[in-house]
Amino acid sequence: MAKKEKDDASQTFHALVESADRKFGRVRDLPLYGRAPQNHYFQKVFKAYMRLWKYQQENRSKLVDSGLNRWEIGEIASRIGQLYFNQYMRTSEARFLVEAYVFYEAILERKYFDARGSGKPKVDVGVRFKELRFYARFLLVALIFNKVDMVRLLAERIKGLVDDSKTNFRETNFKEWKLVVQEIFRFMEVDTAFTNVRPLQYCALFDSHPASRPYLARFHAKKIVKFRDALLTSYHRNEVKFAELTLDTYRMMQCIEWEPSGSFFQKHPVESVYQKHPVESNENGTVIDHSGAASGLIDINMAADLTDPTLPPNPRKAVLYRPSVTHFLAVMATICEELPPESIVLVYLSASGKAACSNLSQAESSGESRKSSKDKVVSGVYDTEKSSGPESHCNGKRESSDYYDNYLWLGPRGYGGSNALYPGDIIPFTRRPLFLIIDSDSSHAFKVLHGAERREPAALLLSPLKPAFKNLSAFDTTHSGSQFTFFLTAPLQAFCQMVGLTSADSDMDFYNDAEEILSIAFSEWEVILCTSKSLDLVWAQVLSDPFLRRLILRFIFCRSVLSAFCPLEDEQYLPVCLPHLPNSVSARCEAVQSAVIRLANHLKVADCFQFDDT
């Protein structure tokens, strides 16, 4: 009878596993973008895993006697962590990220995949791959959750496992995992270059300025739009990345999130969540988990105690890894179609570009004359931002070819064709409000969008065509990320990188003082923008949004810094915004340049700049 009970328990368990895995596969394949209702699918698969987890907990002894391995329990818990993380990627709700982190951390602490805890002398190669995948998934969650110490720990664990696997599984190829290890440490090397700095997310403690708060509260534009959705992608050859998250998209993704580990999280540290509940081990090695995170008492609202209820929701983010042009446009179409009324979409594109003039010889060899296009690029791409309006051709009328002369590459290599994203491809989407950030060596080609919108004037932040560094030979953007994106997401670190400073050059108090200089400047510029009579409605309608306002302020800082740093204000090294911001926050105005001077003097790098006499 006892044997039959064990067999029945084992059969039921495996039937529940198969059922849950089928549902998991369907949810995993759902797109991670758009606002189509998908909670129904999520709840179904979640209930399936709740049922499975509860069953294995209630019948643990029978299942262990029937041959249940600890790694099988870990695999179930890992799937639940994946569910939470996928739901976070779909919704950008911080509580799902917290849940994923707690589940993965509990698996790590209980050593579900550790062969030494299974009673077996050697782990199976299949289980080793499961263990490696678990560590990689946990590392991605910890990276986005900004748990630097945990990221380092997991990176070392993965490296150790790969080294051990090459020794103990000589007949198995672990080449792909060796590449993963290289990716991890390359990413960490760049991301942790400045260790004594604050997170990239929006933190009310640092980014909300008391002096300007009353002006923001009283500010009213004729039209206000809400920042609800973002589309983020980068495509560069050999760019720094981990898994399907590139360094540039990671920085921008973090920049438009509320910081979840500020003063609230200091009172409720995530690291101690599982420690609040004791874990006991029976004589047979089975584990009795009293933690809500890994005991089977799975609650979708578990993160309620770990998230700050006073924070507004994060904007939804669709993060695309190396998309094709058609896929990018399809996702953009879906987001724009489902965008709620009176809302705006942020589109961030970081990619290499190609100017039509560089294709001249190729075009001529095919019998096509592109001299007029070449002339337009030379006169238009490097046009000064101080011009009174968008470029015009043919007696003031822009020709349709202007929208398809230059492009960005969303592909491995090539000249145009299916891998080319043209400025004209974006025009149909300007029926909805767009906040466009183009980071490319052909970014200025997108100036032609200004004035060509179908309905809603777009806000354009366009990068310089070339980066600027004190020691240019020491930097490669493919190894350190885009400079413009760095300025928009971490302005002080970008400033220091530009002039050749590192966090090792000074102590934390020194950098905190520098952050304070920036904070005071941003507060002053907020007041100027709020009280300006010449602020274009395109900027006024988003000024109330903390994320977009912060991007605008950092653009003002970036433009002023590069204007004073670069020789003769070469247009190739300067960013552009369209429509133009008021002259009261221009690159060389006293209110802006004085802050850059204070910062340069504080960091003792004023000799790197050419400031106007004030």
Describe this structure in words.
This protein starts with a helix and ends in a 12-residue tail after the last helix. Mean pLDDT is 82; it is low at 262-302 and 356-397. The protein has a 6-stranded mixed β-sheet with strand order 6-1-7-11-12-13, sandwiched between helices. Strands 8-9-10 form a 3-stranded antiparallel β-sheet. The chain has helices spanning 2-28, 39-58, 60-65, 70-91, 94-110, 125-144, 148-168, 175-191, 204-207, 213-218, 247-255, 263-267, 325-338, 360-365, 371-380, 423-426, 477-480, 483-489, 491-499, 508-531, 537-540, 546-565, 590-602; strands at residues 226-235, 241-242, 245-246, 279-281, 287-289, 316-321, 343-351, 353-354, 407-409, 420-421, 434-439, 459-462, 576-578. The chain is an alpha/beta fold and 614 residues long. The chain is built from 23 helices and 13 strands. Residues 362-397 are annotated as: Disordered.
